[in-house]
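Support reply, case 0932

Customer input (verbatim):
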Amino acid sequence: FNDHDITVRLNSKVTRLDAEVRVVTLASGEQLRYDCALVATGSRARELQVSGYDLPFVFSLRTPQDAEKIAARCSAGKRVVIIGSSFIGMEVAATLRRRGCEVTVCGKDAVPFQKVLGRRLGEALRAFFESKGVLFMAGVALAEIHGGNDGGEVVLTCGRRLPCDALVVGVGTAPNAEFVHGATKAADGSLLADEHLCTSAPG
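Our regenerated output:
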């Protein structure tokens, strides 16, 4: 980095980027001015705003550490409810079913992968997963979560209650772009960019 005149600032969290004045503010209060800024902060697992989401048997999958926590919780015979029937949810369902867990997948779509692969292929994949013992509940969403350290139950929007030892939520990601101000964003909070990765804000 030194050979290319690059300064690395470790343990320096950015709390705000003001695109209009080209200033980055760090958690320490220090401000850095820039000519050009590249925002590459990635995304995080999307959280659901429901009661009980912070209970210890509720998991999301984004990092290897998340996978380790889910594996430690979900041994053979455990009852697992998965919210979300796209790639993350279905991958978790396949893995935990092979471990011997009782798996129920709940999703808003009529069939898994419907939005990305289409209904026909989604129906074929659902049939395959069902042949392996995975249960499905379609057209539902999570309403509430109740329980404690050893598990509890989830309440769906249809009123159905499902007891479980673990709940895994896989409903997509949220962009880490809240700290950026002065550049146009999409409805999900991500930065809009053109084919050159330039936003609406110069620089």
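We compared this against your earlier run and they match. Two observations from our side: The longest helix spans residues 119-131. The chain has a mean pLDDT of 94. Please reopen the case if you see a mismatch on your end.
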